[in-house]
Amino acid sequence: MQFLCDAYLDIETTGLCSFYDEITVIGVCLANDSGNKLVQLVGGDVTRTNLLRTLRCVDTIYTYNGSRFDLPFINSRLRVNLREHFHHHDLMHDCWRNNLYGGFKAVERQLGIPRRLRGIGGAEAVILWWRYQIHRDKKALDLLLEYNKEDVVNLITLRGKLERFGCGPR
Predict the structure, then answer these.
(1) In degrees rounded to 5, what are phi and psi of residue 147?
(2) Residue-wise pLDDT tens digits, 2-33
(3) Where are the alpha helices (DSSP H) in 55-103?
(4) Cα-based torsion angle of the residue sequence 82, 58, 93, 104 in order, rounded to the nearest 10 degrees
(5) Which 8-state DSSP code applies to residue 100?
(6) Mean pLDDT, residues 116-138 taken together
(7) Spatial CB neighbours of 147, under 8 Å, sequence gap ≥ 6
(8) In the chain, which ranges are E strands?
(9) Angle CA(92)–CA(98)–CA(104) in degrees, nearest 5?
């Protein structure tokens, strides 16, 4: 018997255009009553097969702005429409209903969700990836993966805070 879990998903890319840019990291935190498990697909491991294998026990995928970015990007690059296989809940819309606007980092600040890595955003994530690719800078890759992990784990925190305020996923 397989227990269903929730997935918290965030991607890192080489840019904003899914036609030209690549997915560098897919971070997924699988969460259920038994605990959490982080999976990060990196570089050549970012494949349709690996992603679907990672999500095999998932009922609902949670993202922040995933409706407009993560899921369409994945569909374009990996040719898998996650909305056809899973429930999807974009936490950004819950934030909007409660006057919490801005990117994920801005909402984290508004809600007091701590972040260990400061000063790193999407543009820096691209630079870290290229430092790893061009110079084989393992520290850059480690920092990129830590940044992605913090994004994914903070999605869980965001959902919990929204639910405690009575304004979480319906």
Answers:
(1) -60, -45
(2) 679 999 999 999 998 888 999 999 999 999 99
(3) 70-78, 82-85, 91-97
(4) -90
(5) -
(6) 94
(7) 12, 117, 120, 124, 125, 128
(8) 5-13, 23-32, 35-42, 58-63, 87-90
(9) 35
In the chain, DSSP finds a helix count (H) and a strand count (E) of: 7, 5
Percentage of the chain lying above the pLDDT 90 cut: 86
Q: What is the DSSP letter of 3?
A: -
What pLDDT shows up at residue 169? 62
In sequence order, what are the residues at sequence separation of 6 or more whose Cβ sits closer than 8 angstroms to the Cβ of residue 48?
78, 79, 80
- What pLDDT was estimated at residue 1? 43
Q: CA–CA separation, 31 vs 22, rounded Å?
A: 27
Residue type, 30: L
Q: Choose among 1, 59, 70: nearest CA to 30.
A: 59
Domains of the chain: 5-164 (3.30.420.10)
Q: Exposed/middle/buried for 97, CB within 10 Å: 0-12, 13-18, 19+?
A: exposed
